Structure prediction request, 924 residues.
Amino acid sequence: MEKLKFAVVDLETTGHSPEKGDRIIQIAIMFIENGELVKEYVRFVNPGQPIPVFIQELTGISEQDVASAPEFGEIALEVSEMLTGWVFTAHNTQFDLPFLQKEFARCAVPLWQGRQIDTVELAKIVFPSAVSYRLKELTEELSIPLPSAHRADDDAKAAAYLLLRCIEKVEQLPERTISLLHKRSFTLKSDISVLFHLALNGRRSRTADDHLPRFRGIPYRRAGLLVRPENRHPAFPDSREAKDSLLRSTYASYETRASQLEFMDTAWDSLQRGTEVMVEVPTGMGKTISYLLPAAVHAIQQSRPVIVSTYTNHLADKIIGEEASAVASALSMPVHAVVLKGRSHYISLGKFAELLLSGESSYDNVFTEMQLLVWLTETATGDLNELNLSGGGMLYIDRVRKRSSKLQEDEMDADYHRLALQNCRNADLVITNHSLLLSDGDTRDRMIEDASGLIVDEAHQLIHAAYKTNEVIFSFTNWKYVMGQISSEAEDQISSRLESLLVRKKMYRSRKKEALVRAFDSFLKAFDDSVRELVGPESIRRGHVKGSRLHIELDQIPADRDILTEADAALGRLIGCMEEYAGALVLETDSLSPKEHAVLAEWQYWTDELRMKRGEWVELFLEEGEDGTVWMEQDERSIPGSLQVIKSPYDSARVIRKALSPFFEAGQGVVWTSGTMTVKSDERFVARQLGAQADVPVKKLLAPAHFYKGAQLFIVEDMPDIQQVSQAEYVEEVAEAVVQTVMVTGGRLFVLFTSQDMLKHTYDLIYDSGLLEEYALIAQGISSGSRYRLLKSFRQYGKAVLFGTNSFWEGVDVPGNDLSAIIIVRLPFSSPSEPIFKAKTAQLNKHGQNAFSGYALPEAILRLRQGFGRLIRSSEDTGFFIILDRRIETKSYGKKFLEALPDVPVKKVSLARMVDELDNCYNK
Prediction:
């Protein structure tokens, strides 16, 4: 990149808006020439106004630092002249450049002109799998020094080194990949195209020899094929001493736990004898290694894999990345573990190649194509979950997911999903997720046909997965999106491109186009009529309001069935017209060029999408059956845009037993395990919902007596009764309790809710108060990112508070002092209006059972136990479990919650007394 000179700029300011009087307090410019940092310019700037306290805390820049510094007007011309002739670069140029330009204008200095490069945009392309593109997280992942984030000098230098790393990565890409990137880069928001142009010329001048194979001209990294190693003869350690020795040699901090060793024996016995067993293993007991080790030994001896099913793909990836290597180390031999996910998690290279040829032009689509082109040169799995994409990118990704098991000849050796299935045959451990285990398709069938046993981890979550996996969902916005793809006559849309192709091929027939337009208009009218039926005043009157959302059981809506039937018929006519419109091209497929074939394939893709949606329409609105419950959701603030209709089964046992029947019929061992498998009053509560027969044993293992010695439980007595005050009043008291607790613990706190609505109101109240502005407030559903990314952010900040709902009650591992306390805002009962919960309790009541004591209470107790399990992950951990919901002491069922928790000190205190005790503890 010797022809370009970069000026990497970072500003610290009093706020975001120079129009409202915000000013620069520090400016830093790093000058890069010939690939090296050649000069630095760093100045404090006197803003001529007070620096807000939170800015001082964020940046570490005080009033004293800028007191004797020049105002920006005194250095504006100097800065402008220095930047002249250099490529303006910043980590988010959309902030730094406009702010600087406005300051130049205010100081009557000529505006900067030239090329600009945004390292956020560039990094997203060249590092498409990065966890985060915030400068602090990105530089940490790339091992780029950043001593003090939010200081202009450190930020600018880190961004400068990030730019050099990005350029280095670009130059290492295959020449063909660089060429494809360059062709698409003119759509970008900054002038990154010049980087690809120079990199391309550099590669050509060196005549580099690319080593990656190509699929229809696209370089990609081919997934490796596993070969089962020979001469492996592992033995399961029978004695306690042998197990201790193995685990001690693997884990430096290993401590003997009787329950862990007992679980290893139980899992081994089940797999060897082909029996079924359920085991509750306390959190922090080393559960994963305890089932993986016997599973690996059994699989190697049988030369057939053991399947391990987990709740989330993230947990599956963690097992592959950490736990499987620990098993190999313990056994002193290679252990092959592979992750297998559902077909749609993998990229279809054939579909991607078609879309590249079809001429996408929108920013989101082109940007995502560029990310995929780089990612394909480095992925070993083809798993699209590896990518960190924007919302617009996800719509494009949905179009390149693998949807069919049918492959063209040139796809056979390049299909990641097919290779993953082949590797299952030669693997020892196949790690999958509950959704795939419960699915009905060839991927699942091929995965289990060679299995020698099954481990179901987080088994209680298989119940929830049984509902979610079998859901059918109608989404108004999704339907409108698909319809928009077909109806748009814009030049770059599929309808226009298909018409142009038909004209070129002399296959265009105006009568077919007119019939298609009529069919679309007819369907659109019928669709809109149906939606009006669903969201009319009667729905609002009958709906249950949860926050701003309405939950309505579909059978309560007096919708005209004839209108819904007409929409189905109109959709059928539209699909027929779409097939007829492109029919002549289908007959001449062999004569089409690859680009022409890509246009036809895209039209067929959207035709198939409508065909699938028609099936969903029939199942939701026209079929009758008692195998599930159907309900409608909508947000009063955005009707009909928020409309969803959902159908889900309510009998999880039947779904699960049917899916796992091949294991039982083959007499293979099945081990169910979880940290919460039992309730004191009903030891088989979870077992029944999993469909386990009455003779399947449920073992409950115990943690060592000293394991929870570092935990304390507080019940705050002076909180208002949640059932006697409004939500607004309760939220005010919750916010006060959170603020006071955070101030004495220094953060490192989870606040767990059962409602997103209450979470949002509490978060907003605390945020607006400014009382915790020096803390990182991370909120599920508000802060951007997945659960995994929110958790990573929480760990990275020393002073952080995480506000979470249902998914943070369990499956979250924050060991050591990274988590100091958990606040339970209310006891985790399901809302009586939740459709599945409502259907389950209705069934129980119908059969003369008490739905509260038989279902609602045990479910809530299990969830509270899971919440407690986040706090203590080892015998060295300390932490405080704080319950704000007074029902735990005022209601008769409250003692059942306390009895279910480990035996730790329980203190019933006022908020002020609790804060004093926490303060004393931390002062010690």
Observations:
- Residues 473 and 641 are 14 Å apart (CA to CA).
- The first strand starts at residue 5 and ends at 13.
- The mean pLDDT is 87.
- The chain has five domains: 5-203, 257-336+427-470+652-704, 341-423, 472-648, 711-923.
